[in-house]
Amino acid sequence: MNQLELTHIINAGHSIKARFHRQSEYDYFKTVSQGAASTLWAATSDQLTERGGVFIEDCNISHAVSADSQSKVGVRPWSIDTDDAAKLWHLGEKLTETVFPI
User: What is the mean pLDDT of residues 38-57?
Assistant: First the structure.
């Protein structure tokens, strides 16, 4: 799809449909380069120096949104719940029979 540049055509259709329904956000496809950009940004950004545990999207640190948000972007509360993260960490240790330093 990327080689044929069909992503541009599909994205244009989604944009038109969103405007018709008076929506500011719409689903879109990224090219391979666009898809890799956030990973490369995370690996090289000074904004992330000595800072871990953040969610990124579109070459930036994502922001928290409410659980009932209709937005297609942002991090929902359950994704950044520290209690759930600790439980998941301990479950992973139990299932792998390995203790990892935190």
Answer: 91
